[in-house]
Amino acid sequence: MNAERRTRLEEAGIDVGEALERMLGSEALLERLLGKFPADPNFAALGEALAEGDAQRAVAAAHTLKGVCANLSMTGLHSLFTRQVEALRSGDFPAFLALVRDSGLSSWRFLQNVVPAGYARHQEVALALALAEKLLDGRGACRVHGGGFAGTIQAFVPFDLLERFRSEMDRVLGTGACHVLSIRPVGGVRLA
Predict the structure, then answer these.
(1) Which residues are CB-contacts of 108 (< 8 A; sequence separation ≥ 6)?
(2) Are 72 and 33 a contacting pair, CB within 8 Å?
(3) Which of 103, 161, 171, 159 has the alpha carbon at shortest distance from 137?
(4) Is residue 135 within 8 Å of 168, Cβ to Cβ?
(5) Per-residue pLDDT tens digits for 65-93
(6) What is the distance between the alpha carbons of residues 30 and 35, in angstroms, rounded to a whole number?
(7) How would residue 116 be classed by pLDDT, with cut points 50, 70 and 90?
(8) Strands (DSSP E) along 88-178, which ranges?
(9) 3-state DSSP call for residue 74?
(10) Residue 147 pLDDT > 50, yes or no?
(11) How many helices (H) and strands (E) does the chain have?
(12) How far apart are CA 154 and CA 169, in angstroms?
């Protein structure tokens, strides 16, 4: 595993060192198990249980996914599934649904879903989207720009967050990665 891949996994919330300890140092095994994670049948079981209103089955599926995340040292997702199980057990279904949305977004961003086929090593867009969402913390908005495969996102950032947003994006993605654009109050004009 090269340093870039390791960094990306760690930025996605995976404790690579701990995971490799569990895999007795086998990077190939870790990569294979991470690749199988999106197809875990408990995702479908969780969806079916929710659709049928079966809280007990939903708890079981979320609990199993929590365990899988723990075994793969996916600390961010483990925390998310832990909160899902707690919300279901306490009967707080709105909180559970919010966590399910978070889980879906996390899977989309960190499980190779924002890259062209055959380029699984490039997760720049997913990383940028995740970082932007974290920095915006529910304010403003961000989205893939140019179809997602041009390596660009677009973010609408409140002025009071702008400098911190820009500096953090540059710190993580590289100096000059974040370009601040302004929209002028007058639209397009004709130059004679």
Answers:
(1) 114, 126
(2) yes
(3) 161
(4) yes
(5) 899 999 999 998 888 889 988 988 898 87
(6) 8
(7) low
(8) 141-145, 152-156
(9) strand
(10) no
(11) 9, 2
(12) 12
Query: Of the segments 30-39, 123-132, 157-166, which one has the largest average pLDDT value?
Result: 157-166
CA distances from 183 to 186, 187, 188 (A): 8, 8, 10
Contact 153, 145 (CB under 8 A): yes
Question: Which residue spans within 116-161 are E strands per DSSP?
Answer: 141-145, 152-156
Q: What is the DSSP letter of 120?
A: T
Cα 48 to Cα 35: distance, rounded to the nearest angstrom? 23
Identify the residue whose tokens are 């004009």: 189
Digit-coded pLDDT (tens) for 26-68:
999 999 998 888 777 887 677 667 666 677 888 898 899 899 9
Q: Which residues pair with 142 in a beta bridge?
A: 155
Q: What is the DSSP letter of 175?
A: T
Query: Can you name the residues that pair with 155 across neighbouring β-strands?
Result: 142
Encoded tokens for 188: 């397009």
